Amino acid sequence: MSLIGILLLSFQKMVAQVLVQNPRCEMLTNPLGIDAVQPRLSWEIGSSARSVSQKAYQILVASSSEQLARNEGDLWNSEKVNSSATVHIKYGGEKLASRMRCFWKVKTWTSAGESEWSAPQLWTMGLLYYKDWPKGWIGFDQAFPWDNMKTDSRLSARYFRKEFQTTKAISYATASVIGLGLYELYINGKKVGEDVLAPSPTDYTKNVKYNTYDVTSYLQNGKNAVGTVLGNGRFFAMRQNEKPYKIKTFGFPKMLMNINIVYSDGSTANIDTDGSWKGTADGPIRTNNEYDGEEYDATKEAMGWNKVGFDDSKWLKAEFVQEPTGRIEAQMNENIRVMNTLKPVSIKKLSGDRYILDMGQNMVGWLQIKVKASKGKQIKLRFAESLQANGELFTANLRNAKCTDLYTAKGEGTETWEPTFVYRGFRYVELSGYAYQPSTGDFIGKMIYDNIKTVGTFETSDALTNQIFKNAWWGIAGNYKGIPIDCPQRNERMPWLGDRGAVAYSESFVFDNGRFYAKWLQDIRNSQKEDGAIPDVAPAFWRYYSDNMTWPGAMLLVTEMLYKQTGDLQAVQDNYPAMKKWLSYMQDRYMKDYILTKDSYGDWCMPPITIEFGRGKSADKKYPSELISTAYYYHFTQLMMQFAKAIGREDDVAAYQQLGDQIKTAFNQKYYNDKGYYASNALTDNIIPLYFGMVPKDSVKQVFSNITYTIEVTNKEHLSNGLVGIQWLMRCLNDNGRPDLAYTIATQKTYPGWGYMVENGATTIWELWNGNTADPKMNSQNHVMMLGDLLIWYYENVAGIKSDGEAFRKIIMKPEMINGLDKVNASYKSIYGLIKSDYTKTVSQFKWNITVPPNTTATLYIPANKRNEVSESRNIGDIKFVKMDNGKAIYEVGSGDYSFVVEKK
């Protein structure tokens, strides 16, 4: 791990090297333009010593770096606080004002001694009040003659510019910008920042997000030029005239911006959007539509349009336009960036001037091209996830999304181009319009997703397991787009709530997705109706309010994930009223005799009985299930009890306890069969009540026996779950003593299963278990919903990295010993630091290297028959033997690196 910006700490008694590292505000490093009036501060402690724990801390926040260097906290001096807390510490100092710069640092007292101060960090406040913003939004509230306002929404990009003068030496400058639907910002010809497709999408009638950039280095003495390009994004809605009863529309692209300059003498200047700006829609981006692609005419380029001295006399005067009705908010989640690049693996000629480019990986993003062509020559790029048997693109599963880019050359030697305001999921590209055979070196695939860190690694001795994990990584990352979209290729790309129930929890072991999902929970809250109803898609770009438990219930499951994985109590506090209101709505409207009678989807997309049985058939069929809806309502009462306890709502704890008991009783009376199964004995119908704790104690073994019989005998060691059941399958099997059966399912190469996808060429996760034979109408080859709890099982049970309570302050490390899996090496960067579990086993020996981060403890379950079989390389620090239990030697340890060996005797 890089220690850039991390200060080595010294102690009065130098017993160890300890770091206070990665100080963060609102869990971001050096955040700019936040609008939280009580930001939360966090830090990590790094140490090579064992059993390091924090005893106290002190935080200083100053209004200048000079004051902070003198240890003067004029904004806040927390003084010494006797506490072990290192995360989510609320700022408690002076009132913070718009644009304020806040410099901070922290020192700690640990079991190893007193540290020096950490390296200083900075956050800046955003524009906290409506009046801080300029008076007017600018744009063009009209289509131009070359635009098309029919169903395919062909609207050209808008270009705006302004020149201004700086009069003194600049101390620092920031730009706060809202460009809807998408924007790129330039100052003096240079693109500001590395973000693409910014800002994150929202329901713009509810809220709009702004971004803030440090633009000090972009400005120059004297004359300056600022330019912006506005794309359509979700604001100028795709297919907006196709189904007006379904699709929410917002208007034409528009922008609001403030550049705030602070001179060295303390005076300030503001460059705002106003009537002095000039604009045009007659630029090179002729259309940009997320479904259909981008058309770029290089002959329309206006060289130097975003630099000083450009002649904009033929441009139009920017128009003041109506502002969106949503409230203005700082964007606290990360923007999208180009996060990876890929080189094509092959190029093959088709008939005529067409070629097929293979990227070797189903990816999400776009293609950068280099081309030589005469002026006006058009190069067409068509994208798809797979090929037909004859080598042509397979586009049937795109529905009516064109997924096509069109580049018109300017005829000036080698030209390099990539789109600006579109993306798609693809592995293959059909190229046409070339007068020569292009080579693979002419193309670069650019993978884009939200700029969030990969925090988990997972590798085993089983190659198939490793490939499934890799496929999961590519699928999860590719579908982060400021919102969790279902798929990146067809004419949908919507944030369906049902897709991310337990999958968000799975994702959290691989990606630092806390801020991403906190933002999405806000989108869900904003979409809630006054009566309490929550939609199936949020933000509610589609007006789908079907009322069911499993889709809107993602709000509770994601809140649980944030609290459990990151300790974010604020997520519980923010979402509790909306969750309670929704549950009351569903109870009042649909609960009869404690059975929740309304469901919409059932166990969505269950696998057909055989691969051939599902050939050519559509999976878009709903089988509502009152059993599922009732079981989920019960489960949510249990979650609400946890939430209510966490935030001190004791009255609600008792109420949800009583309601849950009544639902459980009614559920068992209606659905439980004396033969030990529920309803029709379907796998999901048994797994859900068992995992949710609804099965009477004296019936648990019998119900689980029916589950294993269904899997082992009826299914011949395969799963048969849809979207709902797959969220609980692996944990249910593991927690009831059958990790071996979970592993068998997870590594099946025959239908249905994740391994079957790999065997049939998948490099991401399919939407359907029979994705190679189903009707293409609903058949994405890059969907995360069928991951279910697989990654949770990988980390918590196979690797043995599980939080005991909230945020991994206490860790349970209990890897399952599975025949055929001889090596597992996993890591997870928790909020307290890196956790590692790396073990190798043979018939006679078990070796386990672990890392426990400072300020945490772990309970270890080491496979051994006797205590004297276990040894540890250093045998120092807090290594406490607890007991032997069922073939496990249980130890408690503090932080540090440990190497255990079990020699079986």
UniProtKB/TrEMBL annotation:
<feature type="domain" description="Alpha-L-rhamnosidase C-terminal">
    <location>
        <begin position="800"/>
        <end position="876"/>
    </location>
</feature>
<dbReference type="InterPro" id="IPR035396">
    <property type="entry name" value="Bac_rhamnosid6H"/>
</dbReference>
<dbReference type="Pfam" id="PF05592">
    <property type="entry name" value="Bac_rhamnosid"/>
</dbReference>
<dbReference type="Pfam" id="PF25788">
    <property type="entry name" value="Ig_Rha78A_N"/>
</dbReference>
<dbReference type="InterPro" id="IPR013737">
    <property type="entry name" value="Bac_rhamnosid_N"/>
</dbReference>
<dbReference type="InterPro" id="IPR008902">
    <property type="entry name" value="Rhamnosid_concanavalin"/>
</dbReference>
<protein>
    <recommendedName>
        <fullName>alpha-L-rhamnosidase</fullName>
        <ecNumber>3.2.1.40</ecNumber>
    </recommendedName>
</protein>
<dbReference type="Pfam" id="PF17389">
    <property type="entry name" value="Bac_rhamnosid6H"/>
</dbReference>
<dbReference type="InterPro" id="IPR013783">
    <property type="entry name" value="Ig-like_fold"/>
</dbReference>
<dbReference type="InterPro" id="IPR008928">
    <property type="entry name" value="6-hairpin_glycosidase_sf"/>
</dbReference>
<feature type="domain" description="Alpha-L-rhamnosidase concanavalin-like">
    <location>
        <begin position="349"/>
        <end position="448"/>
    </location>
</feature>
<keyword id="KW-0378">Hydrolase</keyword>
<dbReference type="Pfam" id="PF17390">
    <property type="entry name" value="Bac_rhamnosid_C"/>
</dbReference>
<dbReference type="InterPro" id="IPR016007">
    <property type="entry name" value="Alpha_rhamnosid"/>
</dbReference>
<dbReference type="Pfam" id="PF08531">
    <property type="entry name" value="Bac_rhamnosid_N"/>
</dbReference>
<dbReference type="GO" id="GO:0030596">
    <property type="term" value="F:alpha-L-rhamnosidase activity"/>
</dbReference>
<feature type="domain" description="Bacterial alpha-L-rhamnosidase N-terminal">
    <location>
        <begin position="168"/>
        <end position="339"/>
    </location>
</feature>
<dbReference type="InterPro" id="IPR012341">
    <property type="entry name" value="6hp_glycosidase-like_sf"/>
</dbReference>
<dbReference type="GO" id="GO:0005975">
    <property type="term" value="P:carbohydrate metabolic process"/>
</dbReference>
<dbReference type="InterPro" id="IPR035398">
    <property type="entry name" value="Bac_rhamnosid_C"/>
</dbReference>
<feature type="domain" description="Alpha-L-rhamnosidase six-hairpin glycosidase">
    <location>
        <begin position="454"/>
        <end position="798"/>
    </location>
</feature>
